[in-house]
Design brief:
The complex is a heterodimer of chains A (about 400) and B (about 260).
Chain A: E1 7-15, H1 22-31, E2 37-38, E3 51-52, H2 71-87, E4 99-104, H3 110-117, H4 131-140, E5 146-149, H5 155-168, E6 174-181, H6 185-194, E7 217-225, E8 235-244, H7 257-269, E9 279-281, H8 288-302, E10 311-312, H9 315-318, H10 325-339, E11 341-342, E12 365-366, E13 371-378, E14 382-390
Parallel strand pairs in A: 4-5, 4-6, 9-10, 9-13
Antiparallel strand pairs in A: 1-7, 1-8, 2-3, 6-7, 8-14, 11-12, 13-14
Helix pairs in contact in A: 2-4, 5-10, 7-8
Chain B: E1 5-13, E2 24-25, H1 42-57, E3 70-76, H2 80-89, H3 95-99, H4 105-114, E4 120-124, H5 127-142, E5 148-155, H6 161-166, E6 175-176, E7 178-185, E8 191-197, H7 215-224, E9 229-238, E10 241-250, H8 252-258
Parallel strand pairs in B: 2-6, 3-4, 3-5
Antiparallel strand pairs in B: 1-7, 5-7, 8-10, 9-10
Classes of the chains: A alpha/beta (about 400), B alpha/beta (about 260).
Chain lengths: ~400, ~260
């Protein structure tokens, strides 16, 4: 079978609770900073857990251009603004009709739906899950395909894969792809009701782990065909795999078979074997079930290699940023390769015997991985995996 | 891109309710035995019913679509609106109610019920998203990532009828609730997708009303009721995008007959 067209990640831009641009995000990760704080923007007094990874001081939309304003859109545009700065372009250096936008989200514009149902009916069109993606396209001036994917908390990975497909199919010459989600009452109430939030620190793979905290973020990459990019890049998107659990609407399959299939599919897509993988960014939510299941799945999918390589989770630092999580984790992988440092798994202090892989506790580790795997799991049994190559 | 072949297609389409004020043709809530479905949302139950209809159309047992060699793609523009609204307005909503607000849960119920564990994808948008998803399915089949691909589309409107009525200018009427599932296999011929933003040729409106993402599958059902092979063009629009899918289609049924 022919090798698929290689797709480069030319640049990335982010806004996160630990840093409002890519450099700040990276610095906070490697120094072990935490973005978890009391949630201030929406009322939480009635909720069991009132903390999360909230982006403080998120400014109004920069260079407004008539884009409908909502927090989800602001996160996307803040990430896009950083992306434009990182890629050193604005306006887009291409025919706008050849620039696509693909974003992943678990929540879309649902906060606009909350406001509309509370009486502000003008907000209603913004409640559709694809509204923020279209707002981003308008702000960028992109006139190519605009696609929203919503595979729950695996959305960011799926969006990058769909973006790569657009390039391979010749539908676009550049794609701005990634993910976002904003903290709002809707999701905070929902996870509170699910009892999956912790009052403690988020402790991925720790024996004492007791749940996740939610975060909000925007994370976007500029994807281009590698042959069209003469200059330096962040890395290459080599492969993607997905698989359904077919088990439960909200709980992961107990053996992690779906995640295992997704990892195998991603490696096959990248034409690589488990022995090629140098580093794994785990989904690592710090729920009792997730981390044990993910460990088992990685052991089966990677075999002996799983015990030989570093694996981390950055959710202790910024919470679970839902639609943005997989894209942020992919960027962390590429920055690790570029900077020669792997960020630690924050708050991992007492390893769980059932999570017996090298989860990088303590502080950042000197290493320069070449091939990286990033895993994601979401509601509905959505499992996704990305394979990335260092520049 | 190589065109997939149609193995089967199930389409459930809404009907006018006597005295119904808003021009919405509804599908109602299908009954499904089993305690597991007690709290399932209407869009989930309709998705399951659409898969049942597809299996009936293909005269295939449930086992024929089970396993990791079946891909599942889901498209919708707004089916999640009903469950999102219910959770927002039900101030004491529980965890299960919240889980059902995720668009991903609609294909998840299909995956659980029919044992589908292969690759998946979920696109949010109108008819162009569905045409793109057919292209995604074709790519998965062509790459050997699956042996069959199911494309599920669900749109429901009744629970948000008042909201749609307030924003009539955004929609064409009547709104027709539709749940559809298309079974694709490896095929022959060519599949050509084109999309234009802003200007461009007008997309024909599906007969009988607006079905958002489910429109192209309802159009395909009408075409299949008349023919089993030949060039087909599906079209649709959403926001400022107009898309067309040129499909030199041969159904699996037609291929079997020729053999």
């Amino acid at each position: 079978m022919a090798t698929p067209e290689r797709v480069a990640i030319a640049a990335a831009g982010v806004i996160t609770p630990i840093g409002q641009d890519l450099e700040a995000f990276w610095s906070a990760l490697v120094t072990g900073a935490s973005g978890i704080s009391q949630i201030e923007r929406v009322p939480v007094a009635d909720l069991r857990v009132q903390r999360g990874g909230e982006v403080k001081k998120l400014g109004r939309i920069k260079d407004w251009r008539g884009v409908p304003d909502c927090r989800a859109t602001r996160l996307l545009i803040a990430a896009a603004d950083d992306l434009c700065a990182q890629a050193a372009f604005r306006p887009l250096p291409l025919d706008p009709a050849r620039v696509g936008v693909v974003v992943g989200t678990a929540l879309g514009g649902v906060e606009e739906g909350e406001k509309a149902l509370a009486g502000d009916r003008r907000r209603l069109p913004g409640a559709l899950y694809d509204a923020p993606g279209w707002n981003l396209a308008r702000w960028l001036g992109a006139r190519g395909p605009v696609i929203t994917v919503s595979t729950a908390c695996a959305s960011g990975a799926a969006a990058m894969a769909v973006g790569a497909d657009l390039l391979r199919a010749g539908e676009a010459d550049a794609v701005v792809a990634g993910g976002y989600d904003a903290l709002c009452r809707f999701v905070l109430r929902g996870f509170d009701a699910l009892r999956s939030l912790t009052r403690d620190e988020v402790r991925p793979f720790d024996r004492r782990r007791s749940g996740l905290l939610l975060g909000e973020a925007g994370a976007l990459a500029l994807l281009v065909r590698e042959r069209d990019l003469p200059r330096a890049r962040l890395g290459t998107l080599l492969g993607y795999g997905s698989a359904s659990d077919g088990f439960h609407i909200a709980a992961p399959e107990p053996e992690g078979r779906g995640l295992e299939r997704a990892v195998r599919a991603a490696l096959a897509d990248a034409r690589l074997s488990p022995g090629d993988v140098d580093f794994v960014s785990a989904h690592g939510t710090a729920t009792p079930l997730n981390d044990r299941i993910e460990t088992a799945a990685l052991k089966r999918a990677l075999g002996a290699r799983a015990h030989q390589i570093p694996i981390n989770s950055i959710k202790g630092s910024l919470g679970h940023t839902m639609g943005a999580a997989a894209a942020l984790e992919a960027f962390m992988c590429l920055l690790s390769a570029q900077r020669g440092l792997i960020p630690p798994t924050l708050h991992l202090e007492e390893p769980d015997p059932e999570c017996d892989l090298d989860y990088v506790p303590g502080c950042a580790r000197a290493a320069r991985p070449r091939i990286m795997l990033s895993t994601s799991m979401g509601f509905g049994g959505c499992n996704g995996a990305l394979v990335l190559e260092a520049a | 891109m190589r065109a997939p072949a149609v193995r089967a297609l199930g389409v459930l389409t809404g009907r006018a309710q006597p005295g119904g004020a808003p021009p919405i043709l509804t599908l109602g809530r299908p009954e499904r035995p089993g305690d597991r479905f007690r709290r399932a949302t209407r869009e989930c139950l309709l998705a399951l019913a659409a898969v049942d209809a597809m299996l009936e159309d293909g005269k295939a047992p449930r086992a024929a679509i089970a396993g990791e060699r079946t891909a599942l793609l889901y498209v919708t523009a707004a089916a999640y609106g009903a469950s999102n609204r219910a959770f927002i307005e039900r101030h004491g909503g529980g965890g299960t109610h919240f889980a059902y607000t995720a668009p991903a849960v609609v294909p998840a119920e299909v995956a659980i019920e029919f044992g589908v564990t292969g690759p998946y994808g979920i696109l949010i948008g109108g008819a162009p998203a569905t045409l793109r998803a057919i292209g995604q399915a074709a790519r998965l089949l062509d790459a050997g990532s699956c042996d069959r691909a199911l494309l599920l589309a669900v749109e429901i409107f009744e629970e948000c009828a008042d909201l749609y009525a307030r924003h009539r200018r955004f929609n064409r009427w009547p709104l027709v609730e539709t749940a559809a599932c298309l079974w694709l296999e490896r095929g022959e011929g060519e599949l050509r997708f084109e999309s234009v933003r802003g200007g461009g040729p007008a997309a024909p409106m599906g007969r009988g009303g607006e079905r958002f993402a489910a429109g192209p599958l309802a159009d395909l059902r009408e075409w299949l009721d008349r023919a089993t092979a030949g060039p087909l063009e599906l079209a649709g629009r959403w926001r400022d995008e107009r898309a067309r899918l040129g499909w030199s289609l041969v159904t699996s049924h037609a291929r079997d007959s020729a053999a």
